[in-house]
Amino acid sequence: MNVSRILQIATAGYLVLVGFVTLRTQPVDPPEVGPIWFVLHFLGRHTLTSWITFDRAEFFGNVTMFVPIGLLLTLLLGRRRWWLVLLIGALMTCGIEFAQRYIAGRVSDLRDLVSNSIGTVVGVVTAAVVFRLHDRLLRSRAAVQRSPVDGLPAAHR
Length: 157
What we know:
Blueprint (H helix, E strand, L loop, with lengths): L2 H21 L11 H10 L9 H24 L4 H19 L9 H36 L12
């Protein structure tokens, strides 16, 4: 199985997971119940972590959820189509927020549009770093292959 096929499967699987998380009739953790609320209440009782509120955790969670979307789509579509990945991320976010207006127990929120878009941008930037590291690796391998017979890398000539 080649890398492109693995990326296609990983991207499709992750998009299904995001759809499941964002388009269910109930949020992942019902209000005031479950492990997320337990952690938030625990953090709220301590001075150093009392700033971590549900709204901030949700914002960070939304950013984090969309980073893989930006990363996987950029790796799949290629570095020159980064702008298309940003567009797809924004359209996905708008679609999710629109659908949530009509799903019981869900709330459509402008902050989600912002946080999801930030996550997509972070994913695209992460993919750019991956592409750059990959290019460097290829260049260094090519330099080693061009080195003299004694095996010294080209940088040591």
